[in-house]
Amino acid sequence: MLLAMTSFFRGVQISIPWFKIFLFGCIATLSACGKEPLYQQESFVFGTQVQVSIYGETDAKARAAAAAVMQEFDRLHREFHAWKPGPLMALNVAIARGERHQVSPEMAAAIRDATQLSEASDGLFNPAIGQLIALWGFQSDEFKSVLPDPEKISARLRAQPRMRDLTVDADNFVSSRNPAVQIDFGGYAKGLALDNAARILRTQGVKHALVNIGGNIIALGKHGTRPWHVGVRHPRTPNTMFELDLHDGEAIGTSGDYQRYFELNGQRYCHIIDPRTGYPASGTQSLTVLAAPGPRTGVLSDAASKPGFIADIKAWESPLKRLGIEAAIRVDESGKIAMSAAMGQRAKRVRD
């Protein structure tokens, strides 16, 4: 009989059968008591732990499919990295110089899509504020507890960088009417990676899988005879607040103030910057969204949680609905939990 294990990632955890623990990059296969195997591969990409779980396939097929997904994650990490040399940095340098710059069709599509999402959220999702993110020290693998110069924050706010400042032509040349635009896809790339992973797995004939990138999770098929089961963790403890089943094609994602942050004089400053103020968003500890199946489910699980996290407490559901998200959970700064009606029909509260 297999014992149960819970694996934690950012704001979401998944319940899976126990497997022998190896170092990152290892793989494990389970097949016991006549059951179909659960194959898992882990790595560290996008600055977080990632895991691919494949159910019901042969060891060789699962290994090849998981390896293809991990290879894609590595590629996207290089393609969309905001502060290390690569295609996105080259584009940002060109924008700052007022130059046109040709990008890949993939990057062009991401810019167009992110612009649409930004407009739908009334600018609360705004990947164009890379300068502000860098100013706060969050475009770094390690950051210090130092407050930026308020005058520099004000200057970047006055520049009003928006995704709509960008123009992408038919040949994928990008230009900007605003040199202050600096793109940071930190709230988009992991979602894109989930969508690409699902496409790769389906192309390789995998019908049942769970892909987890630091708490952004997409489900394919089932875990045997039951749906994939995930838990939403408490933002201040390792405990699970809610559990729910993820059905085929659904994705879940959490934005929280407890992963990338620093504290100074008793104040917590998280990496999610409010584009309206130039300061880290406050008033929310975590915001979890459930995205319905569709062509960009993973992207929505990543991008949509940011507007809900940033939005004013009385209007946190409004930007989510404009983005097509009906199911969400919010934990405010005092720890009070609010849940949309749609999520209330799916999530089960876990009692301590």
The count of strands amounts to 19
- The count of domains is 2
Span from first to last CA? 26 Å
CATH uppermost class of the largest domain: Alpha Beta
| Derived structural class | alpha+beta
- CA radius of gyration: 20 Å
Q: How helical, in percent, are the residues?
A: 25-40%
Strand line-up of the largest beta sheet: 3-4-5-9-10-13-16-17-18
**What is the average of the pLDDT values?**
90
| Low-confidence residue ranges | 1-11, 13-34
Number of helices: 10
Return the string of H and E elements: EEEEEHHEHHHEEHEEEEEEEEHHHEEHE
CATH topology label of the largest domain: T-fold
Features:
T-fold; five-stranded antiparallel β-sheet; nine-stranded antiparallel β-sheet; alpha+beta; single chain; 352 residues; 29% helix
Description:
With 352 residues, this protein is of the alpha+beta class. It folds into 2 domains: 236 residues, T-fold; 90 residues, Orthogonal Bundle (T-fold), CATH 1.10.3980. It contains 10 helices and 19 strands. The strands form 4 sheets. The chain has a 9-stranded antiparallel sheet. Strands 1-2-11-12-19 form a 5-stranded antiparallel sheet, with no helix packed on it. A hairpin with a 2-residue loop joins strand 4 and strand 5. Helix 1 runs antiparallel to helix 6. The N terminus is likely disordered.
